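Now for our target.
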Amino acid sequence: MSLGNNLDTLYRQVIMDHYKNPRNRGEFEGDSVTVNMNNPTCGDRIQLQMQVEDDKISAAKFVGEGCSISLASASMMTQAVKGLTVEEALKMSQIFSDMMQGKDYDDSTFDLGDIEALQGVSKFPARIKCATLAWKAMEKGIQSENE
């Protein structure tokens, strides 16, 4: 068994863990930035909520339904952006977008952790929208907050 196969297996396990045991699943009571998005090609739907205070994302939660990649990505994203400034969250989203498009990306700015398990999705163009849905919702929420 090659190292590549072992890595693919590990990445699949990380994705399935986030899918079966999503982090930050739920809704906030009270004020939050709320964004609803869907991916009509496969039926993924997400409602993302973020609490933004002093230009920092203090908390993020999501509810939704969809494939394992979509929901695992939402779980990973909500973990990753907590505590980041709005600018840092947008930069991380750009790094993630580059990763999904198979481009070189700078992973020195952030510890991407579990998010790197999604890099294999770039080999399956039809699944990229699944992986990026929560990230696009986060970007949209930040943009609406700054308008």
